[in-house]
Design a protein that fits this description.
Blueprint: E1 7-8, H1 20-27, H2 43-53, E2 60-63, H3 65-77, E3 84-85, H4 93-100, E4 105-106, E5 128-131, H5 143-151, E6 158-161, E7 182-187, E8 200-204, H6 206-216, H7 226-236, H8 239-262, E9 266-267, E10 277-278, H9 284-293, E11 296-297
Helix pairs in contact: 1-7, 2-7, 3-6
This protein binds 4'-deoxy-4'-aminopyridoxal-5'-phosphate.
The site of 4'-deoxy-4'-aminopyridoxal-5'-phosphate has 12 residues, from helix 3.
Length: about 300
């Protein structure tokens, strides 16, 4: 949407500015560096992420937003004749990539409370992917449920898309050491206020990461601009600011949910930075249009 008097809630961006360290990094950016190609291995950003999350540099992959990382992962890991599994109500791009790469897929239904049922993912498949917390529902699986799902899927790659994990759910990064087939994808777009910089990353076993690297290097070696590399590293290094903004977003989410409930909305408990709500009397398209008239953008 164009214009400056807008409240834009429809792509789950962060209302707070990026970490102060990001502005510092920009101030000190040597633009002569732009003459040259960036580091194709993105070593400094990879190292900062590895240090922050307590994994090895060879267990980290970076890309142009998590969309790029996930698309690359579909291409790399989802290539059997068996269907890939993801929830029927989930991130809409999974279906788009599966169609684009001609990957068969099935979409198990969420339960009545909009939760993923791990047992739906016990059947034979060509890979599993879901967001945790799920989008657009905001509902999350516990680490124990994720581990259960992994134990039932030892023969395929399981991708947990943690775009919204920093707002309250448990990350599965701690499981990559134990499960060689687990890939955990995260992004700077939401919790680190850097959607415009396009920085995403994945954590997994050395085997998964080196395979992703091999595919990436057969497609486009220089995915990450020098500017994005510097900004991404600065944001990872500012932990206090990150924790504080995530806490504030979660507090606003919970307060907004209470206020919406007081207005008669039914609101699903969310661990993300968005709310999934319905009104018993007003249809969603009506609410969408009325809010749009006022310059407030939501999704239905
Ligand atoms: N996964 C999920 C579940 C998302 O909602 C989004 C953002 N729309 C993404 C991945 C991609 O985000 P980005 O490419 O900005 O990292």
């Amino acid at each position: 949407p164009k214009g400056d008097r807008l409240i834009k809630l429809n792509t789950n961006e962060n209302p707070y500015p990026p970490a102060p360290g990001v502005a510092e990094a920009l101030k000190h950016m040597d633009i002569d560096r732009f003459r040259k190609y960036p580091d194709p291995a993105a070593s400094d950003l990879v190292h900062a992420l590895a240090e922050y999350y307590g994994v090895g540099d060879d267990q980290v992959f970076v890309g142009v937003g998590s969309d790029d990382v996930i698309a690359m992962s579909f291409l790399t890991f989802f290539n059997s004749d068996k269907p890939v599994l993801f929830p029927d109500v989930s991130y809409s791009f999974y279906k788009v990539w599966a169609d684009l790469f001609a990957i068969p897929y099935e979409t198990p239904a969420l339960d009545e409370q909009f939760c993923i049922r791990p047992e739906d993912y016990y059947r034979e498949n060509g890979g599993v992917i879901f967001p945790n917390p799920n989008a657009p529902t905001g509902r999350a699986l516990s680490l124990a449920e994720i581990e259960d799902l992994l134990q039932h899927n030892a023969d395929c790659v399981v991708i947990i898309d943690e775009a919204y994990v920093d707002f309250g759910a448990e990350s599965a990064i701690s499981l990559i050491e134990k499960y060689e087939n687990l890939l955990v994808v995260q992004t700077s777009s939401k919790s680190r206020s850097l959607a415009g910089m396009r920085i995403g990353y994945a954590f997994g076993s050395e085997t998964l990461i080196s395979t992703l690297e091999a595919v990436k290097n057969s497609y486009n070696s220089y995915t990450m601009a020098s500017l994005a590399l510097a900004v991404g590293e600065a944001s990872i290094r500012d932990e206090a600011y990150f924790r504080e903004t995530c806490r504030k977003v979660a507090a606003t989410r919970d307060r907004a949910a209470d206020e919406l409930r007081a207005l008669g909305f039914e609101v699903t408990p969310s661990l993300a930075n968005f709310l999934f709500a319905t009104h018993p009397k007003k249809a969603a398209p009506e609410i969408f249009s009325a809010l749009r008239e006022k310059g407030i953008f939501i999704r239905y």
